[in-house]
């Protein structure tokens, strides 16, 4: 079964997976015709903590709500920063609360569990796979070796910042886990 990966980077690890139909900037995810489960990584620059620095267009801003609709229609997972304003704007419930009318719910993870060098606090909106059916999460204790942004106020010893590419890339283990989740999803 094919999984559509929407808004992937051009160098996305998903392109190495035989069961993924990857839509990067060259293919333009908004041209995807639907028909299968989805993993969506819409741009977050107009939704995240640093959104007031973004010069992205309204068209770019509209990609995330469009991605929510695709996940609600076909089942799957949407990934966005934990502090994204997409959740309240799209009427998505916070982590640990309840399911919506599409059987969608929110899980909060740290990408560090999956091999990212920074903690990278992330929310997943999942439609069609109840919590009890998720693959095991690879919890990891300790402190990440890197940080996402040097602009944040931090206490304790200095840690290096990850590269811009690393901020956007999906770690291999997380991509594998998200594909497994998408395979377990049933359309609403």
List keywords for this structure.
188 residues; alpha/beta; 5 helices; 6-stranded mixed beta sheet
TL;DR of this structure?
With 188 residues, this protein is of the alpha/beta class. It contains five helices and six strands; from the N terminus they run βββααβαββαα. The chain starts with a strand and ends with a helix.
What does this structure look like?
There is one protein chain. This protein has 188 residues and is of the alpha/beta class. It has one domain (3-184). 21% of the residues lie in helices and 17% in strands. It is built from five helices and six strands, in the order E-E-E-H-H-E-H-E-E-H-H. It has helices spanning 58-61, 63-74, 86-90, 164-168, 172-184, and strands spanning 3-6, 20-23, 37-40, 76-81, 104-110, 121-127. Strands 2-1-3-4-6-5 form a six-stranded mixed sheet, sandwiched between helices. The longest helix has 13 residues, at 172-184.
Low-confidence stretches: none
Instruction: Estimate the mean pLDDT confidence.
Output: 89
Helix amount, in percent? 10-25%
End-to-end distance: 17 Å
Number of domains: 1
Order of helices and strands: EEEHHEHEEHH
The total count of strands amounts to 6
Q: What structural category do the secondary elements indicate? A: alpha/beta
Q: Tell me the strand percentage band.
A: 15-25%
Q: How is the biggest beta sheet arranged? A: 6 strands, mixed
Count of alpha/pi helices? 5
Adjacency order of strands in the biggest sheet:
2-1-3-4-6-5
Shape: globular
Radius of gyration: 16 Å
């Amino acid at each position: 079964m094919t999984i559509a990966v929407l808004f992937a980077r051009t160098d996305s690890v998903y392109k190495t997976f035989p069961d993924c139909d990857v839509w990067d900037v060259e293919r333009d995810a908004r041209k995807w015709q639907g028909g299968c489960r989805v993993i969506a990584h819409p741009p977050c620059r107009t939704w995240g903590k640093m959104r007031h620095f973004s010069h992205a267009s309204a068209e770019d801003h509209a990609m995330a709500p469009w991605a929510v609709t695709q996940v609600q229609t076909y089942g799957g997972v949407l990934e966005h920063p934990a502090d994204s304003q997409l959740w309240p704007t799209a009427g998505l419930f916070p982590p640990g609360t309840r399911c919506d009318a599409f059987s969608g719910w929110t899980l909060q993870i740290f990408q560090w569990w999956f091999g990212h060098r920074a903690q990278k606090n992330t929310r997943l909106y999942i439609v069609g796979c109840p919590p009890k059916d998720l693959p095991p999460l690879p919890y990891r204790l300790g402190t990440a070796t890197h940080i996402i942004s040097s602009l944040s106020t931090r206490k304790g010893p200095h840690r290096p910042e990850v590269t811009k590419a690393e901020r956007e890339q999906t770690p291999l283990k997380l991509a594998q886990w998200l594909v497994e989740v998408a395979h377990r999803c049933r359309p609403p």
